Amino acid sequence: MTLTRLAITSALLGAGLWLTAALIPAVADDPEAPLAIEMLFSQALGDLGERELLMLEVTLPPSGNFDPHIHPGPTFLYALDGAVELSVGDGPVGTYGPGEWFYEPPMNLHATTRNPSENSPARLVAFMIMEPEKPPTIMAP
Fold first, then answer.
1. What does the pLDDT look like over 50-101, one tens digit per residue?
2. What is residue 35's predicted lDDT score, i.e. its pLDDT?
3. CATH value at residue 131
4. Which domain holds residue 70?
5. Average pLDDT of 120-136?
6. CA nearest neighbour of 80 among 120, 36, 123, 115
7. Which helix (H) or strand (E) holds 44?
8. DSSP reduced 3-state for 49
9. Which residues of 42-65 are buried (b: 16+ CB within 10 A; e: fewer)?
10. What's the number of domains the chain is made of?
11. Taking a C-beta distance cutoff of 8 angstroms, is the pair 113, 84 a contact?
12. What pTM, to 2 d.p., does this model score?
């Protein structure tokens, strides 16, 4: 089953977050274990011009994945639990476990984001530097 962008966006807006449907692409999931995103921190970075640090906790359900997308600003992912397969562009897919980091340069295709486990969720913290009031994610064509 796939979560709809509308359902995810409604949940995010209900939490008081200004994030668009583009932030969360379609997710393959078990209806009993949906994708979860929790805002952990948001802070204006005045010394970096019109930039903001956004910190999100992302939980991928077993076998969950994101569609390919692009982040306009630098994105850092830190694995908390489980394993996550990640890649940028045509680069190799790497598997990241608890305590490991992944860096995604601005405007590069985030081609792979998936939880290879059929049984366990995977949790990440995403740190994104972005322009306030602009979508942090652009879906790939």
1. 888 888 899 999 999 988 999 999 999 999 999 999 999 999 999 999 999 9
2. 60
3. 2.60.120.10
4. 2-139
5. 90
6. 123
7. strand 36-44
8. coil
9. eeeeeeeeebbebbbbbbbbbbbb
10. 1
11. yes
12. 0.70
